[in-house]
Amino acid sequence: NAGVMQNPRHLVRRRGQEARLRCSPVKGHSHVYWYRQLPEEGLKFMVYLQKENIIDESGMPKERFSAEFPKEGPSILRIQQVVRGDSAAYFCASSPHHGATEAFFGQGTRLTVV
Amino acid sequence: QQQVKQSPQSLIVQKGGISIINCAYENTAFDYFPWYQQFPGKGPALLIAIRPDVSEKKEGRFTISFNKSAKQFSLHIMDSQPGDSATYFCAASRAGNQFYFGTGTSLTVIP
Question: Are strands A65-68 and B19-25 parallel, antiparallel or unpaired?
């Protein structure tokens, strides 16, 4: 999992601001997953992306949340108008192709909304 | 709806003892069952994984037992060490799609 880079590691935002979380997958990996982890809970799936495509966004809240994985550059998870309930650890994982079973996780971004 | 149920929520084991964590799943289409280990402030790291065509897989001190008919699988940590103290998550996936995670087990191994 050392190959998946997430930044920033810690992010503090005031209510109503925007949060941008970045994920650079393992080199050569073209599939990215975003998960959210609340304290004392497991990881909840948010979105699954391939370069320039959203494969599955069934776990994404309908409003304020969006994700992209452009042809060049990192995957971005964007949260608009953050609220206190958005405070969580957000993890990105990558895999080399669709159908690959193993996914490698980054160290996460801990978002705190004050 | 929790697709993967994990127990216990927390576990305390003496050094040298066996740690056992259990998971149950609902969807028979799942075809990959990994266990992840997570230390505080870190991301989950793959520990060991199994596919449903195998009933047991062992890697060092870590063993997965899989019961397809009961839709259950478990992680056994033999000769548990203080360095094993972490949170363990079971998960399940189908055809390389999203993982469904259990709620985690906080393991403490006391010297």
Answer: unpaired
